[in-house]
Amino acid sequence: SVAVVVPVFNAAAEVRECLAALFENGGYDALIVVDDGSDAETAELLDREALRRPFQLIRNKTNLGYTRSVNIGLRAALGHDVVVFLNSDTVTTVGWVARIRKAFAQNPKVGIAGPLSNAASYQSIPEVKGEDGNFITNLLPEGVTADDIALAVGRRTPSYPRVPVINGFCFAVRTEVVRSIGLFDEEKFPVGYGEENDLCLRAAAAGWELAVVDDAYVY
């Protein structure tokens, strides 16, 4: 079973788009949204969305920071086999959960996995870096949707390339991994940025493999 955890702090427009895509595409067994002390606009949006499509809404009374929020969501999701941490500025696509689920099912040694994207460093397609050598954000061509890219990518036979780290924008981990190595390190990485790399390195050191789900795409 797969639980999706979405940490939220403000940015109501992006949150609305993220939730709309999640509701449309489905495929998960549970959705947990952690509101990390958002402003009134975002809090009211979450209340309205929870009436439309029920999900578990966890509210922090004050802003605790990204890593503490994802750990709160993770603890709530430990009854599932896989937890996907999804940034609230993402747009999921058709079949994304099924392809992540398949990547874990094909090899029990895969402990952490993540899809391709338009803006996820080495998981980006079609380009990784620009002419200046920096990581690039690939904009969608006119008339092309994220689902169009997902359907094209989904036609390939995946190879699930092994990598040393998985980008945190859409980060899927077996709960068995967490039970063996612990949660995200909220003391060293309280505001995020590096917490997923740390978990990846700890997982690899414990013998788990990390794979890119190269037939899945999240914008």
How would you explain this protein's 3D organization?
The protein is of the alpha/beta class and 219 residues long. It is 34% helix and 20% strand. The chain is built from seven helices and seven strands. The protein has a seven-stranded mixed sheet with strand order 3-2-1-4-6-5-7, with helices on both faces. Helix 1 (12-25) runs parallel beside helix 2 (40-52). The longest helix is centred in the first third of the chain and has 14 residues, at 12-25. The radius of gyration is 16 Å and the shape is globular. It starts with a strand and ends with a strand.
Distance between the termini: 23 Å
Shape: globular
Structural class: alpha/beta
State the total count of DSSP E strands: 7
Helix content: 25-40%
Spatial strand order of the main sheet? 3-2-1-4-6-5-7
Catalogue the unreliable spans.
Answer: none
Strand content: 15-25%
Specify the biggest β-sheet.
Answer: 7 strands, mixed
